Amino acid sequence: MNIIEAAGLTKVYRSKSGPVHALAGLDLSVPRGTVKALLGPNGAGKTTVVKMLTTLIRPDAGTAHVDGIDVVTDPKGVRRVIGVSGQYAAVDENLTGFENLEMVGRLYHLGGAESRRRAQELIDLFELTAAGNRPVKGFSGGMRRRIDLAGALVINPKVLFLDEPTTGLDPRSRIALWAVIKRLVADGTTVLLTTQYLEEADQLSDDIVVIDDGRVIAEGTSDQLKAQIGGHRLEVALVESGDGSAAREILARYGAGEPMVTSDGRGLEVAVIDGPRALQQVLAALGAADIRLHDAGMRRPTLDDVFLKLTGHKADLAADKAADAELEKAK
Amino acid sequence: MTAAAALPTWNPLSLWYSDGWTVTKRNLIKIKRSPDMLVFAVIQPIMFVLLFSQVYAGAISVQGTDYVQFLMAGIFAQTVVFGSTFSGSAMAQDLKEGIIDRFRSLPMSSSAVLIGRTNSDLVLNTISMVIMMLTGLLVGWRVNSSVSEFFAGVGLLLLFSYSFSWVMALLGMSVKTPEVINNASFLILFPLTFISNAFVPSDTLPTPLRVFAEWNPVSSLVQAARELFGNEGTAPVPDIWTMQNPILTVLIGITVMLVLFVPLCIRKFASISSR
Q1: A87: nearest CA partner in chain B
Q2: Does the pLDDT value for residue B21 go beyond 90?
Q3: Which of B2, B29, B98 sits opposite A90 (nearest CB)?
Q4: Range of the domain at A38
């Protein structure tokens, strides 16, 4: 049974240049006990989806249920079963970590004693014991996120919403936070996660929904999506642009799609299924054809590659457009 | 660990009370830990009383009483008006910091954040008021009325401040940054409190300003406080209904602000979200 069920979610913001569709009829379902990632560039509509499902904003059209409760007609019912942790750690700077968690417990109506007990339990669980009694003001970015995440877990929520949980964190804090989230997931909590990073979706989720311009453009497991765009990207840089067409032919032979050529004709790139094997083959073939290289290598696909493949445009273009929409929305 | 399903169901009234108190407590801790707010609440009133009473007392004469007696009600009124703006900037700040999203995603009473805000600012204003009164007594201010009139005066000032907090809270939820509230209060509230009878008798002002001062609601509040503290002197009160019946005028003003702005605030709160 799906614990999150949303159909036709629509949100339109009026702007000077006409209506902007933050969400254009988005459907989403999340089975109980699974982790689903909403992957998309800045402003694709990820946060809008989370805000609707957590009752912060009302959809203009469409319906959504969380644990069978309608988010529009019974927002308080939904709030009793969810936990939310956001992009900008929603914690009170002047309160200590413990006070923040105790306050959240009281507002879930756990009562004073239970709120304090649970706050201490979470402080210990998130390894914030030393800092728990200092105001959050002095916390590092990673510690703030952990307190914020702890705030979402004061009740054992049936659904945990994580809106870009690691955006803006340094790599070490990101990996530490991933470990915490993985532990929760192992306990069977249903999680809806939004992220701009394919790697994050890959690390944490069972299923990925790619969204752009307020629509779902692809859905599947991480492996299925990667198969769509090829497992790795193989790149070579030529010394002579005159070798371009010969090199292109070789890349096409071992690649999983059409090779792309940079505007100066020297850089070539192609998706490949078995990265290391393809790299060996391509290098051998280029060597045999006496084509000289400045550089060669392979890399993991990024969100940009997924977008280029699925939409034909770069992710950052969508991000710019959406950022403009956000700006208009703010006005 | 606690299961989500085991959340207790409380009756709405105790829920409303408990949530409002939880947020009030949070705000009070914040005030305690930010020195700038304490300066605002404690040092500024002392400074105003001392500056005005020492600098202007010799230059301004008021019929039937001395300037310090006349001045204090004006400073009380000015302080509670400015004190209320804090509700606006604090709401705007909470919105900016994202904590409002946290509150709105919790199953708490929908008015609790606003109740907590206005309650804690009432506490802050009460502290300011007590400090101002003590400072006033030091520079020679005296209450020349009954105990019940004195408390009625204090109550009226604080109730005005409380209801004006709701007006400012709505403003705070409607602006983009907390700075807007500070600038707006400077641009609107300074003229409003200075072009009034707060610091000088309004009959000394040039005609356009005098008319403004006489109809100014701040003047009614000041006049009401003066009467209740027995500081009004013998100067004739302008022959305008609001100035002849200042206490009733202020009570009507308080009622209108609460009846209008409490529901407006609660409605606005249900639709706001940070970022």
Answers
A1: B98
A2: yes
A3: B98
A4: 2-226
Nearest chain B alpha carbon to A114: B2
Q: What is the ipTM, given to two decimal places?
A: 0.86
CA distance, residue B265 to nearest chain A CA (Å): 16
Distance CA(B127)–CA(B39), nearest Å, equals 12
In this structure, what CATH number is given to the domain that contains residue A246? 3.30.70.980
Report the C-alpha gap between B64 and B67 in whole angstroms.
10
Residue A84, in any domain of the structure: yes
- Residue A173 pLDDT grade (very low, low, confident, very high; cuts 50, 70, 90): confident
Final residue of a domain: which of A178, A204, A226? A226
Q: What is the pLDDT of residues A231-243, one digit of tens each?
A: 788 888 988 888 8
Mean pLDDT rounded to a whole number for chain A: 85
Contact list in B for residue A84 (CB cut-off 8 A) is 101-102, 105
Q: Is A216 part of a structural domain of the chain? A: yes
CA distance B123 to B135: 18
| Contact: A90, B15; criterion CB under 8 Å | no
The answer to whether residue A321 sits within a structural domain is no
Residues in A lying within 8 Å of B, measured between beta carbons: 47, 51, 54-58, 76, 79-82, 84, 86-95, 99, 103-104, 106-111, 114, 118, 121, 135, 151, 155-158, 330
- One-letter amino acid at A282 equals V
Residues A144 and A251 in one domain: no
Task: Identify whether residues A198 and A264 lie together within a single domain.
Answer: no
Per-residue pLDDT tens over the stretch B252-266:
999 999 999 999 999
Shortest Cα distance, chain A CAs vs residue B124, angstroms = 17
Domain ranges of chain B: 35-269
* DSSP codes, A223-282: HHHHHHH-SEEEEEEES-GGGHHHHHHHHHHHSSS--EE-TTS-EEEEEESSHHHHHHHH
